[in-house]
Structure formats: structure tokens, C-alpha cells
Design goal:
The structure is a single chain. This protein is α/β, with parallel strands linked by helices. The chain contains ten helices and 16 strands. Strands 3-4-9-10-11-12-15-16 form an eight-stranded parallel beta barrel, surrounded by eight helices. Helix 3 crosses helix 5. The N and C termini lie far apart (46 Å). The protein binds flavin mononucleotide. The site of flavin mononucleotide has 29 residues, from strand 8 and helix 9.
Amino acid sequence: MGADLSTTFTGVRFQNPFLLSSAPPTESESNILRAFEAGWGGVVTKTIGLHPVVNVTGPKTKFLRADADSPHLSMKKRPGAALHSSWNWELISDKTLDWWVPRLGRVKKAFPDRPLVASIMAGSGNDTELRHWQTLAAACQDEGCDALELNLSCPHMDRQDMGSNIGKDRALVSIVTKAVKEVARVPVWAKLTPSTTDIVVEARGAFLGGADAISSSNTFTSLPLLDAETLEFEINVDGLVSTGGLGGPAILPLSLAKISELTQAFPDKSFSGIGGISTFEHALNYFLLGCGTVQVCTAAMLDSAIGPNVIRLLNQGLARFLEKHADKGWTRVDELVGLRRDRVVSQSRIRRPDEKEYHGGHETSEGYAVAPEEIETPRR
Ligand SMILES: Cc1cc2nc3c(=O)[nH]c(=O)nc-3n(C[C@H](O)[C@H](O)[C@H](O)COP(=O)(O)O)c2cc1C
């Protein structure tokens, strides 16, 4: 009998814990159908909104590559270079809610047992915008969507009341989540921005608003590099650029640090890990730190648009891992979740050589009233 790859996350059953994240691989009905045929456990749609969306002229995404034998980094395609990251300034879906509604219904009819998560976005400045969130939520769940993911994290929004500008404000995160929860009959996941000082603060806001899970990370705010010959940004329109989002391998360790902070602060809550995943070993990091599912974007974009080989290898990797460790009782991914969460500690708890003590940069305990274990970063 093969390994059981299934899991239940926020009450929704997935045949495997690997999802395509909200991005170009999930921007159309045909892509989503292909993704389910390829074996993805779930799909989060490209973000759907009600406001007008017009993307920039020219490429919306490019890939930064590193040479093996020099420190050179460039978006220029060249032999022997390895992927460093993706960089994008793509907005949310430029298709309307009316365009999406019948397509969501058709996907659910074709794959009733595969979770389809609708990613949605509206503003936050007034009651009308909060009602937009509710309109989007109601329309998507009426078509059979199994969960909702709130995009509180798009890093390239001009509107101050949208995207990561909401995700940077604990109160707004809470208000928006609560507004959606008022109408939601399905679980609500809040996708937070990594571009804040302390993601635990915004996560607390989301949970106060009733979020069933946190998804992290969206892309990290970043700029493309300037070309030393032309003095032009490697991606630009008429010489101009704006900040965009970094994804792919470069953000794997960054995103893991965010996840570690989140899962330690909220050990009993649910998390969907995103950022730099292309192999099972990458995904395993997220499971061990406390994520119940993971999501993939950049690696899938580079693999026939929806990642047929990526998902095959992810499933294969999980199956092999579970078979190899069956004697430890790890028969399902759920048993791995959080196993290494508590191995991340403050610096002062790491052993020093020669039995010397370290008090986290404080003077020695003489004259210092607080025991070292109490000096750790305070819980927010
Ligand atoms: C071109 C592109 C478009 C994206 N569009 C969205 C979006 O509409 N909504 C969203 O929540 N995240 C969006 N993302 C972010 C991804 O879902 C994901 O969080 C991020 O790329 C990190 O994952 P990765 O390292 O696997 O790429 C987009 C990413 C890229 C590269």
C-alpha cells in the first residue's frame, strides 16, 4: 500500500499538502484544470478583485540568475547560470469577478474533491470597500470554493488602503478579516506581508478578526538590479521602475524565519508556508517548523507554467520520506508538523565553548536581577 499523503487543513481535506499559490500558474480555468490533472493537492486562484487593474507594458516577471564561477547576478539568460529569484510587478487578476464566477463553478464541477481556494482583495478605507470583500467572498463560496485567502500582502500597490498596506496595519488586518468572516461559510486564510518589523503583530490582528489560518510569505519588496553598462534597471519601462516582489530560492530562508516566528507565537494555529519551494526537502522545512500545507509559485512558473514535474517530485519525495520513517510512527504529514519548531531559540540559549556563559549581551548575572532565560525576546 502506498503512503497516505492526505491531510486536513482548516477542516478541508487535501489529497496532498502541496498547493499552487495565487499567481500566474492559477490565473485561468485551463491552468487550474491542468494543475489538478498534474496532481496538485489544491489551488489558490490568482487574486480576484473589483477595482480596475491594468498591468505595465512589457514583462511582468523576470528571473534573476547567478553564475557558478563568479559573483555575477543578472536577469540575462545564459548557459550554466542557476536561478536566484523571481522578480515581479504584476498586479492582481485583470479579469473581472463576472469572468471568474462561471469558471470557478466549472473547475469545482470537474474536480469536486480538490480544494479550490479563492484569493480575494479589496480596499479598507470605508464601509463600501469592506462590503467589496464580502461580495467577493460570497460570490466565490457560492461557486463551491472551499476556502478564501485574503490578499493582505501584494507589495506593489499604489492604493494606501490595499494589499501590503493593509497587511502592515494590525487594526486593518483585523477589520478586514472580521468583515469577511461575517459572511464566510468556508475557512478564511489571511496572506500576510513579510515586509513588516514583526509579523506576529499582524498575525495576532488576523486571528483576532477570526482568521482560520495564516499564509506566509508573499513576495519581499525589492528592486531589480541596475546594469553596470547601460545604467538601466534590468526590467524597466521607458527607463522607469517601481518596487516589486522577490520570490524563488532567495526567499526560502527569509520566509522560514517568518514562519518560525509565527508558529512559535501561535503553536496551536494553522499555517500555510510559501516561499522558495521547489523540492520536497524545501517543503519539509516548512512542515517541521509548523506548517500544515505549503504553496508554490516561482518553481511552477518555470516548469510548463503549472509545475507538472514539481508536483510529481513533491509527492514522490513525501511518499518516500513517509515510507522511510514509518517505524517512527510518521505515517502522515500531520505527524511532522512542528517537530522542529522549538529548536529555534534565542542566541543566549546556544551552547558556548568552555562552559562560558553568555547572557545575551547583558553583563554577567552579578548585579543583574533577571535570569538569562527571562531575557528572551518578549512575546508580543
Ligand atoms: C508573477 C507573480 C504574480 C503573483 N501574483 C500574486 C497574486 O495575485 N496574489 C497573491 O496573493 N500572491 C501573488 N504572488 C505571490 C506568490 O503567490 C507567492 O506568495 C510568492 O511568489 C512566493 O512564492 P515562490 O517563492 O514560490 O514564488 C505572485 C508572485 C509572482 C511571481
